[in-house]
């Protein structure tokens, strides 16, 4: 006690007499400028504030000595000589120290840290700023320590106002947030102050003084916030950061206030701190130095209390986060929520699972659901278990991850797209980066569930049999966790949810998310490939409108192929998608497709002796599929273009491929060499002996490939090899010892070799014998010789005739009359045979004779017309697909040189559009399409009707050919084709004249779509035309009401066969226009954010467009500002409505004219038309005359329901008129009905299934 008395006695000499700290506080105020000087004079007159350096040093030394004395007394070392004596060491024993003087002294000294500007200006001496700061900090430290002396509160030393004033020195840290020596000293002093405050909170109770406690907490948190925002700007900052947490430990003890309220206060004040990441970049706080780590550490001390606090934080972050937070801030805060949840679960057996399950099921709370899913994502990625060794009976044996996974899967079917997408991301990450328990649960349940979306077929085709052999067997399994029964049903429907809610979504992000999740599911369980509609759904994405989706689709299949390289389904889907991307609009996707081919095919090709893995067979599997499904010319063209700037082809790779020419993969090897021929640099002489050995019948296709390869790579062969090959081919062709399919490419190769020889010969070299003339002479002689023995030598005869016809086309020589007579005679003979005598050999030979006859007549006008007449007879008498195909090709070729040939035979050609064979109809359609697009024949009359009928053909190939043709025709020739068609085609399709007195279609032509039994097909056609027209054009169609009134008034028309079908068709078209324009009218209303993009909306009765009389003044004013594009558009929209208003009077007249001819079908169609008019144009029909006629068609409210349910066509849902309605097809489009055609997985052969691929790439007219 003697030391305290001595030090205080020395300190007392600097006290100011009769001055209280409140007076000093008043002197620092700047309310009255006139008294500023007086206040400054009083302040600087205080003994402790005088700027005498010696005096200040003495004070500083005394304060340090006093602080050190108190620290020693409060030392925990009980053996210390200066240990605290409760009897003598108290304020009552300190002599001659008035509390008010001491408080004034401390207040004045601490004020030196921040002096007002006016006090600085009126200072009588220069200010020692550095010394003043040290004095202030030491005074604050000493005062805090003096509070630990017993009796501080009763003696009057504990003053909340002085404490609050002392805490202002913490602002110095912001002013000295650097690494200067002065800043280092100041930060060290604050380390000391924090240690002193720990003693204060340890020995002084703040339970009744919460305000100063909270102010101290705020100062500490300010330091923490500064470190997170600015980083550690001083070497002592990390130590001070840790000291703050140590001091918070002392503050939370019970003597300083209610523990729960204290912790809640700290959590509230640090809530914003939870948007700073744990591992900040640069020199900021690292892992373990965040407030969250302090809370978790304190959980061991106050488990029950702190669990409530942390649960409250989790609930606030999920249900009510700070509105100003950005998305990134929310994610960081949710990350800390997951951290708290893990600590609560492991230490207290408490979890936020129930909160999340309630939040995720909330209605109309998208943000709440998204935040819940975000927290679930964090929980599923971190392994957490209850760390209790006793009371294990309170710990659930069912993993909490089961319920979280279940609800996340259910969110895949949420009505909101953003929730569905987030759920898919959560599941994808959980499968890929989940905790061990999450990974085990997901892998087991996904792998063990039996998917059975596909119906089993009693009879399997060859491809289904092949796939069934690949399909893995069902597993015999035992789950290793409880609660699996909650997940099985949900996981079982996941593929179907992905297909329906993601891959079929109109949102590209949804499709990409669905693909990512589907890939993860299949990586675990490949039975999804075989037992769900994987092939059908993924194939549809080959021509997706978004490049990002197409890219993701290819990458997904590419990744799956790395795992399941022997899966036929994956190979098939890969070939579909990859071949489309070769010609993608996005050049980057083309490059991506090329590198994918390099990865899956080129890099996996190994010599046969090293091909011992499934991935080594993958290249040949892919090539086999490509050859079966894609046009080789298309692949060749795309490879030539894409390989120009790529170095994927190496000599080693080429040699490896050549080594497979003598293996079962020979056809694929020849094809691959052909595809990469533009980048081959090897010498290829070694393949000529291989070509010579291709003599068997099964090697014909390989011979063709080999000849084409040699043509592309002539520069890679030596002259000797080419000379040898040249002589060999001449010998084979002159003797008729070469296959028919090989003749054309062989002749082309001979021509290229000849051109190469001439190009390298010197100018003065001797002329070389014309090999073509010599070959023609040899072949002519051999052909005439074979004519004598045709029955026994017909195969050689066919080869010689094919070579002869090739030569006749190439060189200007007239065809031999004897050969011509033989060919035409054979064709005529075959035409005269009956069906039983016309066997396969005769058909095959006749096909060749038809082709040869066409070639021989190319240069002879008279012969061409004679042959064309013969072709017409073949088309009229035969329906064999191959023969018709050959005949049409020849007619097309002749028509390019002699256009009148096609005109004279067009009637015979159009008949083939009704063939029972789809291949014949496709070939015929292509023939007619080509000549029309070439401009040789006009599209009108029977040709137009026949081609329009192709849009509703039962064959999807014909329908697509028709669709592509009309798109191209409208682009090239007549954009308004469908506009004119819509007016006249109802008459033409039913074999009726459009105008009175006019001549209908060509005599003898019968429409393929006339009559009541073809009504459904006609409606499909009308829907297709309506979908291609704009709204104004459709509304103008109501002008046909006048024509219809005139037609129905004419008894000579109405009594004609199928005249009533014309009326029904016109009424149907106008009824459909009501709903088509309604749909287009409502398309401008977009969906709001967070709404579902897939949920179908109920159709309301459509309002009519606003007429000029109903426009508001605001609209009129807007229209008066200018007559630009908007004004013209409004005028265009008003004109059809004016016309419709004038034509409404004809509706009742039409009904009156038809009264005596009204059938049940016509009556039903007329009623449906009138109802549609009253719904669509209520503002016009309300005033239409006669009023009693329209009144009965208006929608009425019955007494049993507030609103009658209406179907799409405006019929009462329970009305009598709809009993036999065709409404199921009223809105169908011809091409859309083929979407449900069974794919290869449902029973089609592999090649046919590719023909059904919905890609314009393969079936568009390309320019190669």
UniProtKB/TrEMBL annotation:
Does the keyword Lipid metabolism belong to this entry? no
This protein's superkingdom? Eukaryota
Q: Name one GO biological process term.
A: negative regulation of mitotic recombination
Residues of the region (Disordered) are 1083-1134, 1193-1242
Q: Does the keyword NADP apply?
A: no
Comp. bias intervals (Basic residues): 1193-1205
Q: Where is the composition biased (Acidic residues)?
A: 1209-1229
Molecular function terms from GO:
chromatin binding; histone binding
Annotated GO CC locations? condensed chromosome, centromeric region; condensin complex; nucleus
Alphabetized, the UniProt keywords read: DNA condensation
Q: Which InterPro entries match?
A: ARM-like, ARM-type_fold, CND1/NCAPD3
What's the name of the protein? Answer: Condensin complex subunit 1 C-terminal domain-containing protein
Organism, by scientific name, is: Drosophila mojavensis (Fruit fly)
The gene it comes from is Dmoj\GI17990
């Amino acid at each position: 006690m003697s030391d305290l008395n001595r030090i205080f006695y020395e300190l007392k000499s600097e006290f100011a007499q009769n001055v209280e700290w409140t007076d000093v506080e008043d002197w620092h105020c700047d309310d009255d400028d006139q008294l500023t000087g007086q206040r400054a004079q009083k302040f600087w007159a205080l003994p402790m504030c005088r700027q005498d350096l010696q005096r200040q040093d003495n004070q500083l030394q005394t304060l340090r000595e006093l602080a050190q004395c108190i620290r020693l007394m409060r030392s925990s070392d009980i053996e210390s000589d200066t240990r605290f004596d409760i009897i003598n060491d108290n304020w009552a024993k300190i002599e001659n120290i008035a509390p008010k003087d001491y408080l004034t002294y401390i207040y004045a000294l601490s004020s030196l840290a921040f002096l007002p500007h006016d006090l600085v200006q009126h200072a009588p001496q220069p200010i020692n700023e550095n010394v003043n700061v040290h004095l202030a900090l030491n005074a604050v430290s000493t005062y805090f320590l003096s509070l630990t002396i017993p009796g501080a509160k009763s003696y009057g030393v504990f003053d909340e106002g002085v404490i609050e004033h002392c805490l202002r020195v913490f602002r110095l840290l912001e002013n000295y947030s650097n690494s200067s020596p002065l800043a280092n000293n100041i930060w060290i002093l604050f380390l000391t102050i924090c240690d002193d405050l720990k003693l204060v909170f340890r020995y002084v109770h703040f339970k009744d003084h919460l305000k100063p406690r909270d102010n101290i907490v705020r100062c500490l948190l300010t330091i923490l916030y500064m470190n997170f925002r600015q980083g550690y700007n001083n070497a002592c900052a990390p130590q001070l950061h840790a000291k703050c947490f140590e001091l918070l430990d002392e503050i939370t003890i019970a003597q300083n206030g209610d523990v729960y309220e204290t912790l809640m206060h700290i959590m509230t004040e640090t809530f914003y701190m939870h948007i700073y990441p744990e591992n900040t970049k640069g020199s900021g706080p690292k892992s373990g130095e965040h407030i969250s780590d302090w809370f978790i550490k304190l959980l061991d001390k106050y488990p029950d209390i702190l669990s409530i606090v942390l649960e409250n934080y989790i609930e606030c972050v999920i249900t009510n986060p700070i509105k100003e937070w950005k998305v990134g801030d929310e994610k960081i805060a949710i990350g800390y929520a997951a951290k708290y949840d893990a600590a609560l679960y492991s230490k207290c057996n408490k979890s936020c699972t129930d909160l999340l399950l309630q939040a995720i099921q909330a209605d109309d709370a998208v943000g709440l659901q998204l935040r819940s899913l975000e927290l679930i994502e964090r929980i599923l990625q971190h392994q957490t278990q209850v760390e209790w060794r006793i009371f294990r009976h309170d710990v659930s044996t069912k993993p909490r991850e089961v319920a979280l996974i279940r609800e996340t899967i259910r969110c895949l079917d949420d009505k909101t797209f953003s929730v569905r997408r987030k759920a898919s991301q959560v599941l994808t990450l959980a499968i890929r980066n989940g905790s061990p328990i999450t990974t085990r649960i997901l892998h087991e349940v996904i792998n063990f569930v039996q998917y059975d979306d596909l119906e089993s077929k009693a009879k399997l085709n060859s491809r289904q049999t092949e796939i069934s052999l690949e399909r893995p067997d069902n597993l015999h399994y035992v789950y290793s966790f409880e609660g699996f029964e909650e997940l099985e049903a949900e996981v079982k429907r996941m593929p179907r949810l992905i297909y329906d809610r993601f891959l079929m979504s109109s949102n590209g992000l949804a499709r990409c998310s669905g693909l990512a999740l589907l890939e993860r599911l299949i990586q675990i369980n490949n039975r999804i490939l075989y037992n769900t509609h994987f092939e059908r759904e993924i194939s549809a994405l080959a021509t997706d409108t978004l490049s990002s989706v197409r890219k993701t689709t290819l990458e997904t299949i590419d990744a799956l192929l790395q795992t399941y390289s022997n899966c036929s389904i994956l190979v098939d889907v890969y070939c579909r998608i990859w071949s489309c991307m070769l010609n993608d609009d996005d050049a980057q996707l083309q490059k991506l497709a090329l590198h994918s081919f390099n990865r899956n095919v080129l890099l996996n090709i190994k010599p046969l002796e090293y091909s011992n893995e499934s991935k080594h067979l993958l290249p040949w599997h892919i090539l086999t599929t490509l050859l079966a499904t894609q046009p080789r010319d298309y692949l060749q063209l795309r490879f030539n273009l894409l390989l120009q700037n790529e170095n994927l082809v190496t000599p080693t790779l080429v040699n490896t491929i050549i080594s497979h020419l003598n293996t079962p993969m020979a056809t694929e090897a020849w094809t691959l060499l052909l595809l990469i021929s533009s980048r081959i640099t090897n010498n290829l002489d070694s393949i000529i002996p291989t070509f010579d050995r291709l003599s068997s019948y099964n090697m014909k296709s390989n011979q063709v490939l080999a000849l084409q390869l040699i043509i592309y790579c002539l520069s890679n062969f030596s002259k000797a090899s080419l000379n040898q090959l040249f002589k060999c081919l001449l010998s084979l062709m002159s003797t008729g010892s070469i296959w028919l399919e090989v003749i054309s490419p062989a002749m082309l190769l001979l021509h290229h070799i000849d051109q190469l020889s001439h190009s390298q010969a010197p100018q003065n070299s001797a002329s070389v014998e014309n090999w073509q003339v010599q070959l023609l002479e040899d072949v002519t002689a051999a052909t005439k010789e074979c004519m004598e023995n045709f029955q026994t030598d017909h195969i050689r005869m066919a080869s010689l005739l094919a070579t002869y016809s090739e030569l006749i086309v190439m060189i200007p020589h007239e065809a031999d009359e004897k050969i011509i007579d033989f060919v035409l005679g054979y064709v005529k003979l075959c035409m005269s045979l009956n069906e039983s005598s016309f066997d396969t050999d005769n058909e095959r030979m006749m096909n060749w004779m038809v082709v040869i006859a066409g070639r021989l007549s190319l240069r002879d006008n008279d012969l061409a017309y004679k042959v064309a007449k013969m072709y017409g007879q073949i088309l009229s008498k035969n329906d064999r697909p191959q023969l018709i195909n050959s005949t049409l090709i020849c007619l097309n070729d002749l028509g390019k040189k002699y256009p009148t040939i096609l005109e004279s035979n067009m009637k015979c050609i159009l008949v083939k559009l009704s063939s029972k064979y789809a291949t014949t109809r496709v070939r015929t359609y292509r023939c007619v399409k080509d000549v029309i697009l070439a401009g040789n024949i006009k599209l009108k009359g029977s040709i137009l009707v026949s081609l329009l009928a192709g849009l509703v053909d039962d064959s999807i190939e014909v329908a697509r050919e028709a669709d592509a043709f009309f798109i191209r025709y409208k682009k090239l020739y007549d954009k308004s084709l469908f506009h004119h068609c819509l007016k006249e085609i109802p008459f033409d399709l039913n074999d009726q004249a459009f105008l009175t007195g006019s001549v209908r279609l060509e005599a003898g032509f019968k429409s393929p779509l006339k009559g009541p039994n073809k009504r459904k097909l006609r409606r499909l056609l009308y829907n297709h035309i309506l979908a291609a027209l704009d709204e104004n054009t459709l509304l103008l169609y109501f002008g046909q009401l006048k024509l219809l009134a005139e037609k129905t008034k004419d008894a000579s028309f109405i009594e004609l066969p199928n005249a009533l079908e014309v009326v029904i068709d016109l009424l149907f078209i106008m009824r459909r226009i009501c709903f088509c324009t309604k749909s287009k009218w409502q398309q401008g209303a977009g969906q709001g954010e967070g709404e579902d993009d897939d949920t179908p909306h109920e159709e309301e009765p459509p309002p009519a467009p606003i007429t000029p009389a109903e426009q508001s003044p605001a609209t009129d004013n807007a229209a008066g500002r200018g007559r630009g594009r908007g004004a013209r558009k409004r005028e265009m929209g008003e004109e059809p409505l004016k016309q419709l208003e004038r034509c409404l009077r004809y509706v009742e007249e039409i009904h009156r004219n038809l009264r005596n001819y009204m059938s049940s079908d016509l009556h039903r169609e007329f009623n449906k038309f009138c109802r549609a008019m009253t719904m669509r144009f209520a503002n016009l029909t309300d005033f239409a005359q006669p009023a009693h006629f329209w009144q009965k068609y208006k929608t009425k409210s019955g007494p049993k329901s507030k609103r009658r349910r209406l179907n799409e066509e405006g019929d009462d849902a329970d009305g009598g008129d709809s009993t036999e309605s065709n409404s199921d097809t009223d809105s169908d489009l011809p091409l859309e009905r083929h979407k449900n055609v069974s794919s290869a997985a449902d029973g089609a052969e592999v090649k046919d299934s590719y023909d059904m691929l919905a890609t314009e790439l393969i079936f568009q007219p390309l320019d190669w």
